[in-house]
Structure formats: C-alpha cells, structure tokens
Design a protein that fits this description.
By secondary structure, the protein is an alpha+beta fold. Helices cover 46% and strands 25% of the residues. The chain binds a DNA duplex through helix 8.
Length: 212
Amino acid sequence: MTLRENFHRIFEKELVEEILKIGKSQSFSEGEIVINIGQIIHFIPIILKGSLKISMIDDDGRELLMYYIDANKTCAMTFSCCMEKRKSKVIAIAEEDTEIWAIPVEYMDKLMLQYPTWKSFVMTNMQERFIETLRTLDMVVFKNLDTRLINYLREKSKLTGKSVINVSHEQIANDLASSRVVISRLLKKLEIEKKVLLFRNQIKLLQDFYEQ
DNA sequence: ACATTAAGTGATT
DNA sequence: AATCACTTAATGT
C-alpha cells in the first residue's frame, strides 16, 4: 500500500495532499531517541512503520514506560507541547526500526482549522493516549510488580505478534522503574510455573502464560 | 584467553 | 520490593 493510499483511509482528500507536501519521511533504527525530555518539538510524528516507546523520567533519572504508539498513531504529547512551543516531558525511543511521517508544527493551527479529519485524528489520539496513561497509572498505584510484569510481557507480545520477546531483564526493570534482581526473580518464578522459558536476552511465552 | 555483559541467588533491610 | 555482594553463564574481541 502506498503512503497516499494509507493516508486516504484516515484523512480527507485535500488534507492527504497537503500532508504529503509539507511533511517528510524520517527513519529511526531500534533504540534511537526520536524525541528527548526537554527537547522542543518541531514536528508531529505519524508512525508509518514500527513503533515508538513513550516513557517519562523522574528527577532521579528513573524511567517509567507509559505506552507504545504504532502504525497510523501519533504522540499526544507533541500536540500539547507544540501548540505553545513547550518542551517535551517524555522521551520517545524507537522500539524497533521505525519510519515516521514528520509534519512541521507550524502547520498545526492551519490543519486544525481547515480539516475536520485532522481535528478528529488529533482528538482521538489524545483520548486514546489518555486512557492508556490512566491504565498505566492504575498499574503502578494499585497492582503488584508481578501483575505489572505479566502485563508488560503481554503488551510486548501483542505489539510484535510473537510469543518470543527479545529483551533483557535489565531493560524490563528500566521500563517498569524497578531493579534487575527483582525482575529476574519474578521471571524465574514464572519459569518454574511453566509460563515462560528464559534465555539470554530472550523470553518465550508458553501456553499457560496466556491462559487465565 | 580475556573482558564484558546477562542472569541467578543468598542475605539483609 | 529493593539493594548488596558474589557467582555462573554466555558473548564479543
């Protein structure tokens, strides 16, 4: 499917042409930082391929994964920020090799006023991201770490569509704002319960993992 | 062969 | 649930 065809499914005709004209494609390889904390946002990213991981970082440098954004989605933070040329409060890292369509922020006002489908695209995205943030908040405040870990593995698996997840215990600890030893122990418990298989930099989710 | 990084584990707070 | 300290295993050069 071409870029134009893809955009046509979300946006009205004239908007597609305008977006194609003013934006440009940008590629990021896995692990690359797309937008960092404190950085002023110059463009709105629409994900074409791959996905971005959005995390917040507290004063002590502890990181917490908020949500992922994948194909045809965009980051809500960019809207709230770019309107007033504010700095980003979150960090966006390419979860895999990712391609985005970057639209300069200067066009935001115009697009919002002129195109109903753009407005609804923005609103829908903000709403979805907000819900996901609430879910993450609920996880952190009301759930135990083991529940959060299971949830984390579920989401990773869903994102890639595979039952084999390539990630280190250290990385998981980072994403969940925990420590490596604790994650290793919880994973070991899951392995004993026959829910996962552990390898170096790799976790395989078994049948029992998905049940109940 | 050696250095580096990932993961496992007991003890302590 | 986190941290320390130490061990073992896997990988890179």
